[in-house]
């Protein structure tokens, strides 16, 4: 009769392997279902064909496109100006008006990607000077500086 | 680390899903159409299952649905004795083709110029889509209702299945070339152009035949009655589903059962591999479509892989198609914070 090698008091054949339970494959989200309101085929969807309308009229593709592109250009120009203003603030003293009538002054450092926080230095607060601080933009009502 | 399959459930239909078809791979990705007894076939994005639109117009159960190769047109076959052709981009109905009985199956030629239909009136009809007013060409010969009709051999031949036979017809001469007889009811048929393979299911059997000669290549037996089977584009795997509500995955070369999945709450009526072979879709009596990964755990579509070193973090999802817009990427990123682990297969969209 064959002798099975014994390890830890149990024959090798009866050693039980504890495998970790399989984890389900994670998903980003579930597939979107019908919206229940329309039959779908959204006109602004991926494969929307160009609308065949009479050119020249206000609602025409030419009129609409130039109005949209002008608006887009205006938005882009305003955005660029704002970003440049943030750049111009770096290193300057800025006066912030916060909620509850609080006013603080600091040297501006940087803004984050979404302009949600300002990194500032030498923040002068009613309770002292903070060497470095993050100001939450949602708390700022207005700010001014002299370039 | 072992990964468990997470099927993606596409809800929206209110009755059993009886047919589904993928388009080819287009610059916008690939698409999926589902035929349902609720009479409202739906178009979905193929890799995510996202609903795009519903084709409204049929007045009866839709038994068959198909897309042309570039997913610009859809065709449906219904119990209201009509087949309809639709614009798959706008959702508009393009043509209604009147028949004399329930229509069960529709198929476009590669160039989308012709539509093949078949149904309970036992006739195969070929419509010229450039001349919708013209009478279709008819091929008779079947002795019971036609369940499936497909173009094959570069649209030079036609394959059609009724209850107990599969027949091969020559398109030019409109005559029968060969036929196969079965003892049991044929439940489904799929044609693979590369390699000219025909997949036929009947009873518990999944059979593979040459589409040119109809000679048998091989067949496998499943544990339960199979209603539909599909062969992977690279011919490594096949998937099948049927009356026991389960999906089975087999190695095509060895016939070994590799995986099986519970998930549907009713018999599976149709199962198809996507054109890139990365996923397969199943349609069931329970009114849902489910998408399953071919390689479980791979990052694709809505599934994202977990890197073993970062057990808490999740890898960036791979977006396969260049057409993904910024909004969609932002949406995906913001929803990333709550990853969804489905512990039960039943998750509704």
Instruction: Output the CATH homologous superfamily of chain B.
Output: YVTN repeat-like/Quinoprotein amine dehydrogenase
Strand order of the largest sheet of chain B: 2-29-28-27
Largest interface comes to:
A-B, 26 and 50 residues
* Total beta strands of chain A: 8
Can you describe this structure?
- The complex is a heterodimer of chains A (147) and B (349).
- Chain A is of the alpha+beta class and 147 residues long.
- Chain A has a domain at 90-146: SH3 type barrels.
- Helices cover 20% and strands 31% of the residues of chain A.
- The mean pLDDT of chain A is 81.
- Chain B has a four-stranded antiparallel sheet with strand order 2-29-28-27, with no helix packed on it. In chain B, strands 3-4-5-6 form a four-stranded antiparallel sheet, with no helix packed on it. Chain B has a four-stranded antiparallel sheet with strand order 7-8-9-10, with no helix packed on it.
- Chain B is globular.
- At the A-B interface, strand 3 of A face strand 1, strand 2, strand 5 and strand 6 of B.
- Chain B: This is Serine-threonine kinase receptor-associated protein.
In short:
Chain A: Residues 64-75 have a biased composition (Basic and acidic residues). The complex is a heterodimer of chains A (147) and B (349). Chain A is α+β, with helices and mostly antiparallel strands and 147 residues long.
Please give a handful of descriptors for the protein shown:
heterodimer, A: 147 residues, alpha+beta, SH3 type barrels, two-stranded antiparallel sheet, B: 349 residues, mainly beta, 1 helix, 29 strands
Note the topology.
The complex is a heterodimer of chains A (147) and B (349).
Chain A: E1 6-7, E2 10-11, E3 23-24, H1 61-89, E4 93-98, E5 103-111, E6 117-125, E7 128-136, E8 140-145
Antiparallel strand pairs in A: 1-2, 4-5, 4-8, 5-6, 6-7
Chain B: E1 3-4, E2 8-10, E3 17-22, E4 31-36, E5 42-45, E6 51-54, E7 62-67, E8 73-78, E9 82-87, E10 93-98, E11 103-108, E12 114-119, E13 124-128, E14 137-139, E15 148-152, E16 157-161, E17 165-170, E18 175-181, E19 186-192, E20 197-202, E21 205-210, E22 216-221, E23 226-231, E24 237-242, E25 247-251, E26 257-261, E27 268-273, E28 279-284, E29 289-293, H1 326-335
Antiparallel strand pairs in B: 2-29, 3-4, 4-5, 5-6, 7-8, 8-9, 9-10, 11-12, 12-13, 13-14, 15-16, 16-17, 17-18, 19-20, 20-21, 21-22, 23-24, 24-25, 25-26, 27-28, 28-29
């Amino acid at each position: 009769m064959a002798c099975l090698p014994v390890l830890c008091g149990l024959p090798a054949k009866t050693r039980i392997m504890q495998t970790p339970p399989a984890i389900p494959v994670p998903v980003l989200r579930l597939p979107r279902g019908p919206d229940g309101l329309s039959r779908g085929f959204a006109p602004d969807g991926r494969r929307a064909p160009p609308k065949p309308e009479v050119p020249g009229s206000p609602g025409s593709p030419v009129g609409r496109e130039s109005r949209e592109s002008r608006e887009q250009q205006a938005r882009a120009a305003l955005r660029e100006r704002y970003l440049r203003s943030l750049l111009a603030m770096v290193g300057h003293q800025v006066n912030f008006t916060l909620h509850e009538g609080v006013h603080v002054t600091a040297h501006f450092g940087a803004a984050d990607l979404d302009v949600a926080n300002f990194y500032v230095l030498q923040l002068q607060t009613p309770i002292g000077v903070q060497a470095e601080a993050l100001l939450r933009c949602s708390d700022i009502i207005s700010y001014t500086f002299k370039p | 680390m072992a990964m468990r399959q997470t099927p993606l459930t596409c809800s929206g239909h209110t009755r059993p899903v009886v047919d589904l078809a993928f388009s080819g791979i287009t610059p916008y990705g690939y698409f999926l159409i589902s035929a349902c007894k609720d009479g409202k076939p739906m178009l979905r994005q193929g890799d995510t299952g996202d609903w795009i639109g519903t084709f409204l117009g049929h007045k009866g159960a839709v038994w068959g649905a198909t897309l042309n190769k570039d997913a610009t047109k859809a065709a449906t076959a219904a119990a209201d004795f009509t087949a309809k052709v639709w614009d798959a981009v706008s959702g508009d109905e393009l043509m209604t083709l009147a028949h004399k009985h329930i229509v069960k199956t529709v198929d476009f030629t590669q160039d989308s110029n012709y539509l093949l239909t078949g149904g309970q009136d036992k006739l195969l009809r070929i419509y010229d889509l450039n001349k919708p007013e013209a009478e279709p060409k008819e091929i008779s010969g079947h002795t019971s209702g036609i369940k499936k009709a497909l173009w094959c051999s570069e649209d030079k031949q036609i394959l059609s299945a009724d209850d107990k036979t599969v027949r091969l017809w020559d398109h030019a001469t409109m005559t029968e070339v060969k036929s196969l007889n079965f003892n049991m009811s044929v439940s489904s048929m799929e044609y693979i152009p590369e390699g000219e393979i025909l997949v036929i299911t009947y009873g518990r059997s999944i059979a593979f035949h040459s589409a040119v000669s109809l000679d048998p290549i091989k067949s496998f037996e499943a544990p339960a009655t199979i209603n539909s089977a599909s062969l992977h584009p690279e011919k490594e795997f096949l998937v099948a589903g049927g009356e026991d509500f389960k999906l089975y995955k087999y190695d095509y070369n060895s016939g070994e059962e590799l995986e099986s999945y519970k998930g549907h709450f009713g018999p599976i009526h149709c199962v198809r591999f996507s054109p890139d072979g990365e996923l397969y879709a199943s349609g069931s009596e329970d009114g849902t479509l489910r998408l399953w990964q071919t390689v479980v755990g791979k990052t694709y579509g809505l599934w994202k892989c977990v890197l073993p070193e970062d057990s808490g973090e999740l890898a960036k999802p791979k977006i396969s198609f260049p057409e993904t817009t910024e909004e969609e990427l932002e949406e995906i990123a913001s929803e990333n914070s709550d990853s969804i682990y489905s512990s039960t297969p039943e998750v509704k969209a």
